[in-house]
Design brief:
- The chain is mostly helical.
- The chain has a domain of 40 residues.
- The protein contains two helices and no strands.
């Protein structure tokens, strides 16, 4: 029993559907951040032309 008076087995069963939800939403957020990051790099390279990409990839 936990603090809410629910058995551990019932608590585990209640949490099960939310595990898939977190995996799906986490994956979508991760992909969105990845695309946003690439978009920002391309924006700096081709719209602003401020040399950010060159400075990040410069080999000394």
């Amino acid at each position: 029993m936990n603090g809410f008076g629910i058995s551990d087995e019932a608590w585990r069963d209640a949490r099960e559907p939310f595990k898939d939800f977190h995996v799906i939403v986490g994956g979508i957020v991760l992909v969105a951040l990845f695309v946003l990051h690439i978009g920002a790099a391309l924006y700096h390279q081709y719209v602003l032309r401020d040399g950010t990409l060159h400075r990040m990839t410069r080999q000394d």
